Amino acid sequence: MTELSQEVLQEFSDQIAEICEQMELEPDQMLEAIGSTFIGAVMSFGKTSYQVEISGVASAEVETMFEASD
Fold first, then answer.
1. How far apart are CA 23 and CA 17, in angstroms?
2. So which domain of life are we looking at (predicted)?
């Protein structure tokens, strides 16, 4: 898998922030929506787990309660 460039990641993040602002979401609502989207994306691709990491900063992991779909 090809890694995304820092510029692409920043553009994606900026667009998400813009959507959150347009929807007038509070910080906890933003985190809930982003987290739910992350979980949904992992599941829609048929994965049972996935981890994202920013080295030396933080990581986030999804582990589903379902078996992988064949």
1. 10
2. Bacteria
Distance, CA of 19 to CA of 12 (rounded, Å): 11
In the block, tokens 């994306």 appear at: 41
Report domain extents, the chain: 6-63
pLDDT tens by residue, 3-60: 889 899 999 999 999 999 999 999 999 999 999 999 999 999 999 999 999 889 999 9
Distance separating alpha carbons of residues 32 and 34, to the nearest angstrom? 6
For residue 51, report the phi and psi dihedrals to the nearest 5 degrees: -130, 140
The three-state secondary structure class of 61 is: strand
pTM, rounded to two decimals: 0.78
